[in-house]
Amino acid sequence: MKKILVVFGGRSVEHDVSIITAINSVIKPLRLTKKYQVEPLYITKEGKWFWDESLSNIETYSSGKIANLTKKLKPADISFNDGLIISNGKSFNSKKVKIDIVFPALHGTYGEDGDLMGLLEMAGVAYVGCGVLASAVAMDKVISKQLAIANKIPITNFLFYQDKDYKANSSKIINEINTNLNWPLFVKPAHLGSSIGITRVKNNEELETAIELAFHYDSLVLVEEEVSNLIEVTLPIIGNEVPEPAYLERPTLQKTDFFDFEAKYLRGGKKGSKNGQASSSYSQVPAVLPKKLYKQAEELGVKIYKSFGLTGIARVDMLIDSKVGKVYFNEINPLPGSLYSHNFQKFGLSNVELVEKLLFFAMERFEQKNKINSSFATNYLKQF
Asked: What percent of the chain has pLDDT over 90?
């Protein structure tokens, strides 16, 4: 029986979303198969790692019991000397498990951005999802746009700024934005997901406030033009060398809205979300678009997936100018919230089938990588 370690929580503003993804969309369906030994590893907002069965119960978090629980539990001991081994102490009767596959469910900073993947690569353990470089590039909105340009993928006009430069001369930057970009604009932290810290602005006063807000979450901020006659679409994709797209999905929002954190997870309270993901009430699956435009967006999404070297699972977000029929790349989410399982379900892939396929892709990529020789015999040291 393969031992699967599900890692979630973390030092990220997307901490709570990560918990929902891990428990509802990964741990529960994996356990339904009765094929795997599933181990929950929770990382607190302060960065402490805990391993205990009670951490796989959503009520532990929703009731607020998690704070008292982590005070009583000993932090987990993790060894990377022989693969990945997790234990709950150094006593003779401590529990110890050697992990076969890690299933990262860490959204945002220190997880989805490639940090955890680097650790797992060093440990030599298989893991679900995108690799180090693909994760890092996908979570950096500036670099991802620059890579899109290199691959002749359409994007909107944009500028980006470091916080130290903005603090040194904010008036110069505001003037530069006014000179080079057309209103309305979107201001975004460069490295966050779940649409946190994103603001749509129509004038300089709103722009300055939005930039200050974005710098609260990140040291790098992106400012980009809005797409006219906008239709937002998103395409979840799984696979390694051969991408398998699900349905193109379209958020159904008011004309003045965009698909922000509230629309994704909170709108309408419990009725506005299901298992922590966007409710079908707020999205159209599959997106109702002219056949040619639908195919154009789907093909662009797959091209982006390949161009960025994405593996396992990712979600590609795109913007459509419905009047001219042009599709623009917006951003990539290398770990979609709740794995976007609602979309894959409509496509004909159950939650259980989805997580099992992701485990298969993880092992496939791991085995292929292990075929590559990573050592080189040399007499170099003998001269010293």
From this structure: 81
